[in-house]
Amino acid sequence: MCEFKIIKKNDESQVAEEILVLSYTDDNELVLKDVLGMGEKLDSALILDVNTLTQKCMVLEHPLVKNFVSLMKNVMDGKVTLEEIDKIQQGLDQLKESI
Q1: Residue 61 and residue 32 in contact, taking contact as beta carbons nearer than 8 Å
Q2: Could you give the 3-state DSSP secondary structure of residue 21?
Q3: Could you give the angle at which helices 82-98 and 63-76 cross, rounded to 10 degrees?
């Protein structure tokens, strides 16, 4: 059985350890669970790398991730809406202004 340390790419901090399950909720939050089913949720995170040799999983947290994951799921299901696209565009516009 492989238990992972979860590391945030943003600042290289360790978020959790001894994690067996990584999955997304229906609300596109990243759920991290240990052997007891306990863990935590990351509101807007993307799995970047899973390495079974080092038993580390790298995640990236950013406010745009949650909406992007939702958009991509709905694109694949043929259920994308203009409101979802607008939400992503607004987030990108805000990011652009902050640079």
Answers
A1: no
A2: strand
A3: 150
Residues 42 and 13 in one domain: yes
pTM of the predicted protein model:
0.85
Cα distance between residue 20 and residue 17, in whole Å = 9
Residues 93, 69 share a domain: yes
**Max Cα separation, the chain?**
46
Give the DSSP H or E segment for 28.
Answer: none
For the stretch 43-55, pLDDT in tens is 999 999 999 999 9
Q: 85 and 54, same structural domain?
A: no
> In this structure, are residues 6 and 57 in contact, taking their beta carbons and an 8 Å threshold?
yes
Range of the domain at 56: 4-61
